[in-house]
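== Folding task for one protein ==

=== Format: two labelled lines per protein ===

==== Paired sequence and structure tokens ====
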Amino acid sequence: MRRTDAAYAMEGDMSERKCTLEEDVSAAFERACLEQDLAVAEHLLRALEIIAQRDGNENQLQQAMLLFAQSLPGCRNPS
């Protein structure tokens, strides 16, 4: 498979950044919730579930599920 310039650029960006995959997925998930793009948020939540199961980090998953629930129409946090 031929690597594109974009693949090389991404590789360079990844070496400079110190974010984990979980952090990147979580950030995208939070943005999807904020923008009310619930279809995308649901897929990202599934990815976070897999990461949590693999890493044994249920706390992060619970926080993500709460954020998703609060993003649903009619389920706003009263604070």
About this structure: The radius of gyration is 15 Å. The chain is about 75% helix and 0% strand. The helical segments are 5-16, 21-34, 38-55, 58-71.
